Amino acid sequence: MRKKCSERLTRLTSFILCTVLIVAMALFTTGCNGSAKDGESGSSSAASQDAGGSAAGTQSEPEKVGEGSTSFLFMVVDQDGGETLFEVHTDRETVGEALLELGLIDGDESEYGLFVKTVNGITADYDSDGVYWAFYVNGEYASVGVDATVITEGDSYCFKVEKA
Question: Model's pTM, two decimal places?
């Protein structure tokens, strides 16, 4: 009698655990997918990960801009986490030169190089909001400014609004 009761308890426990796992997997899958807006993808791409961004609001295909023999991926991550991905084509040597030429960035020259204030038409104002544009190369915080970063084939570059 005890054996039958123990078997039933084991079966019931297994059934409950399986049900909980199925529900958890269903919720996880739905939560990860989210609801994508037109022109956006709910999943992350390798390009967005390499560029240092998150998956929120990533467009499915990069916008191709510029002309030239060298190309690189460039991502803009705004203050709300929205991402815009560009495939930049250029003959310029540095990322800063290419992005300035295409009007994707703007800023002020200083003794330390270009201080980027506007990216893709979005201005980050440190003095009033305490936010600034951080520059990333292959997902890592850049060790030099955008105007000193030589374009390397296969590298990806990103400007992301960050709070000080």
Answer: 0.65
